[in-house]
Amino acid sequence: MDNQQVNHIKLLNPLTLAYMGDAVLDQYVRSYIVLKLKSKPNRLHQVAKRYVSAKSQAQTLELLIEEQWFTDEEMDILKRGRNAKSYTKAKNTDIQTYRKSSALEAVLGYLYLTKQEERLEQLLTKIINIVNER
Does the predicted model carry a pTM greater than 0.85? Predict the structure, then answer.
């Protein structure tokens, strides 16, 4: 991927990046729990919420920031994602929690779209491990 393509992706609306990141995280979590639990769909859905809820994502983001896990480039995406003005109401959570979860999803979307597969895998694995330790 050339610099022009990366710059184009970097300039996408952060909520667009979060939209992509939400799908990436959801698919990764679903694959993880399906292979781990071998359970019925309703049970899988209940377990998946532990990983993909806005509250869980916000808590995970706070820990990752505390650990200084993100690169400078990723921090720029996080800040844009956290500060983006959404015109939809956050379901079952306050606006701060929603913004933090959107920030984390924006980084996931950015890493996915820029084909930084190794870094994306590291982040997804880290998210799973953090939630598992709670």
Answer: yes
Residue 42 token pair:
């309703």
Judge whether residue 113 has pLDDT over 80.
yes
Q: From CA 108, how far away is CA 126, in angstroms rounded?
A: 12
Domains of the chain from N-terminus onward:
3-133 (1.10.1520.10)
| CA dist list (Å): 133 to 31, 38, 59, 100, 120 | 19, 21, 12, 20, 20
Over residues 97-122, the mean pLDDT reads: 94
Distance CA 29, CA 108 (A): 13
Angle between helices 41-52 and 54-66 (to 10 degrees): 40
Residue 103 in contact with residue 70, Cβ under 8 Å?
A: no
Q: Is the pLDDT of residue 1 over 80?
A: no
Which structure tokens are listed for 124? 């997804």
Residues classed as catalytic: 22
The tally of CA atoms less than 13 A away on the side-chain side of residue 17 is 32
